[in-house]
Amino acid sequence: GALETAREYTRTQARPWTPAGVTQAVEDPYTIRSYGEFGIQLQAADAAAREAAQLLQAAWDKGDALTSQERGELMVQISGVKAIATQAALDVTSRIFEVIGARGTHPKYGFDRFWRNIRTHTLHDPVSYKIAEVGNYVLNQRYPIPGFTS
Fold first, then answer.
1. In terms of residue numbers, what domain contains 74?
2. What is the DSSP letter of 146?
3. Has this prediction a pTM greater than 0.85?
4. Is 17 a domain residue?
5. What is the CATH number of the domain that holds 125?
6. How far apart are the first and last CA of the chain?
C-alpha cells in the first residue's frame, strides 16, 4: 500500500532536508514524526475495524433475533469506522509527499495513484453522511435509518 511504498522510497531514495542536519531522510525528526502519525492513524483504523467486524459477526449470528436497537448501535459503529478509515487513508495518501520529497511526485513513481484510488472509493458512500449519522446518535440518540448505504 501507500505507506509501505512511501517507506521504501524514503529509505532508499529520499533526501534529507538541509535544516534537519542529518545525512539520511530516515534520520530527519519530522520525517520520523510523520511516519509515527501515519502508523498511529492506521492502527486506530485497524482496531476500530476489527471491533466493528466482531460486532457485525455477533449481529449476524443473532439473525432474526437482532433487535432494532442492536442494529442501530451496529450502524453507528460501522459509520464511525468508515469515517476513521477514510480520514486516515486520505491523510496518509496526501501527506506521504511531505516525507518522500518533490522528486517523489514524478509520474514514474505513481504515488498519486494511492490518493486517487482512495478518493474514488470514498466518494461512492460519502463519509460526511456517516459522520452525520454518528453525530445524530451522539447528540440526539437517534439511530441511522436503514437504507441502501446503511
1. 2-140
2. P
3. yes
4. yes
5. 1.20.140.10
6. 27
